[in-house]
């Protein structure tokens, strides 16, 4: 049985579209207004919503998302707050929801309790950047029990042998980190990133969807990674940058929706 995430990719492929995965730091611009920020992305056309669980040491994130994470923590956002936000979004929408979290909050809550909270609130998948597959057995068992997709990451440093293992462990989609370094909007896509997509695609074809993130912030970036073979594009810092701006919330929401619409248009033929 396909997961909700896999069904979305399947339906998009029937329309010859790729997926737009939009990331927001959970709890911003405030915990009360966070569902409205998600609503703006959903109305703008994102196919999968990714919410970042604020953490004090987000090692994979660049300055934009780090700043947003620190701000969310200062507002008192906890994993429990994030699950509450997910529940509010889920009460109105069937869109797949993915959490990006580091392993510490999972460990602190307890793996099974965390997975139960995912299932009960409506989380469909998890991305845990600092959890290697070699140490993920308990995590994967619990996730499977609670129907939560385990979305692992691969990078330019991933060997072919390791890529095969990651593909076998991944469900929902494989998160391809397209470049060395941390998250953050870039002015243009590196040729090496596009070559990486082409190189990894044969290993994911027919097994798991391939979604590309890190540095994607413009419609032309989305078009280029899809043309290279990606099944989806992940955009984070470009959205989070708007969350970080000191502007009226209604204006911010309009800008979030407009950006989502322009990026989603780039996923269509």
Question: Could you list some keywords that capture this structure?
Answer:
269 residues; alpha/beta; TIM Barrel; nine-stranded parallel beta sheet; 12 helices
How widely separated are the two ends?
A: 28 Å
Poorly predicted runs of 5 or more residues: 181-185
Give the amount of beta strand, in percent.
Answer: 5-15%
Order of helices and strands: HEHEHHEHHEHEEHEHEHEHH
Q: Work out the helicity level.
A: 40-55%
Q: Can you list the strand order of the major beta sheet?
A: 5-4-3-2-1-9-8-7-6
CATH superfamily: Aldolase class I
Q: If classified by CATH, what would the architecture be?
A: Alpha-Beta Barrel
Number of strands: 9
Separate helix tally: 12
According to CATH, the fold-level topology is TIM Barrel
Highest-level CATH class:
Alpha Beta
Total domain count? 1
> Whole-number radius of gyration?
17 Å
Secondary-structure class = alpha/beta
Shape: globular
Account of the 3D structure:
With 269 residues, the chain is an alpha/beta fold. The protein has one domain (4-265): TIM Barrel. It has twelve helices and nine strands. It has helices at residues 4-14, 34-44, 63-74, 79-90, 103-109, 111-121, 137-145, 160-169, 191-204, 219-227, 237-244, 249-265; strands spanning 19-25, 48-52, 97-100, 125-127, 149-151, 153-154, 174-177, 210-213, 232-235. It has a nine-stranded parallel sheet.
Quick summary of this structure?
By secondary structure, this protein is α/β, with parallel strands linked by helices. Helix content is 49%, strand content 13%. The protein has a 9-stranded parallel sheet.
């Amino acid at each position: 049985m396909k997961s909700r995430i896999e069904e979305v990719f399947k339906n998009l492929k029937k329309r010859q579209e790729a997926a737009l995965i939009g990331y927001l730091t959970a709890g911003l611009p405030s915990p009360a207004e966070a569902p409205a920020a998600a609503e703006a992305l959903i109305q703008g056309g994102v196919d999968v919503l990714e919410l970042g669980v604020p953490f004090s040491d987000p090692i994979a994130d660049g300055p934009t998302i780090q700043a947003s994470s620190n701000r969310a923590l200062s507002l008192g956002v906890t994993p429990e707050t994030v699950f509450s936000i997910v529940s509010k979004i889920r009460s109105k929408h069937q869109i797949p929801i993915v959490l990006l979290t580091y392993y510490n909050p999972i460990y602190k809550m307890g793996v099974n309790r965390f997975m139960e909270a995912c299932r009960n609130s409506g989380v469909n998948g998890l991305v845990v950047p600092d959890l290697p597959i070699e140490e993920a057995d308990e995590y994967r068992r619990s996730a499977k029990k609670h129907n939560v997709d385990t979305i692992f990451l691969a990078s330019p440093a991933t060997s072919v042998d390791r890529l095969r293992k990651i593909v076998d462990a991944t469900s929902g989609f494989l998160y391809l980190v397209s470049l060395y370094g941390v998250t953050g909007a870039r002015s243009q896509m590196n040729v090496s990133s596009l070559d990486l997509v082409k190189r990894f695609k044969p290993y994911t074809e027919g097994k798991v969807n391939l979604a590309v993130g890190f540095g994607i912030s413009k419609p032309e970036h989305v078009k280029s990674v899809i043309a290279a073979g990606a099944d989806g594009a992940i955009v984070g810092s470009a959205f989070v940058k708007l969350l970080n701006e000191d502007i009226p919330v209604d204006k911010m929401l309009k800008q979030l929706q407009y950006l989502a619409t322009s990026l989603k248009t780039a996923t269509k033929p």
